[in-house]
Amino acid sequence: MTDGATSNLLTVSQASAADFELLGRLLQLYLYDFSEHAGYDVDEHGCYQYAWLDSYRDDPDRYAYVLRMGDHPAGFALVRCGDSSSMAEFFVLRKYRRAGIGVRAVQQILRRHPGRWTVSQLGTNQPATVFWRRAIPVPFEESVQADGRVEQTFTIPAGADGSVREPGVRSKAPRPLP
Asked: What is the C-alpha to C-alpha distance for residues 41 and 39, in angstroms, rounded to an integer?
C-alpha cells in the first residue's frame, strides 16, 4: 500500500533494460486502444505485434520512457531523434487520463530533447489531436497530410536552465531594480 503523496507523484524515466518487458505489456494495451483507429488485429496467439520495440533498446537515436504514478506504471513514450525528433508512440493508461498526467509527461520529455519536433495523429483520432494541441508548450504549425494524418511541427528551445514554458503559463517579466 502506498500513501497519497507517493502515489500522486509522476515520474518519467528512460527505460532500463529491465523495463522492456513492462513496455511490451503496455504496448499491448496501447495497440488495443489504437486498433479502433488503425484497424490492427491480433495474431493467432491473441497478441498485437510491434516490430520496433527492440530498436528503442539498441538504437542510440531512439528513446523509450516509462511513465509512473508513484510505484505504478502509468504509460510510456517512444521518441525518435535526429534532424527532427518525433513522438513515435505515446500512451497513458485510461485510469490516469484527463488528470493532466499526459501533458506533464510530454513537458518532461520535450525538455530532454530540445530542437525541432514533429508529432502526428491519425485523422480519425480526434481526441489525440485535441490532446497534442493542448500539450505542445510552444507555437506550432499544423497540417493535414495526404494520408489524412494531422501533423504538428514545432521547435523546443533549450533555455539556460533547460526549461520549457508550461502550456498556458506566461513568463513573468523581471521587476525593475529600485
From this structure: 6
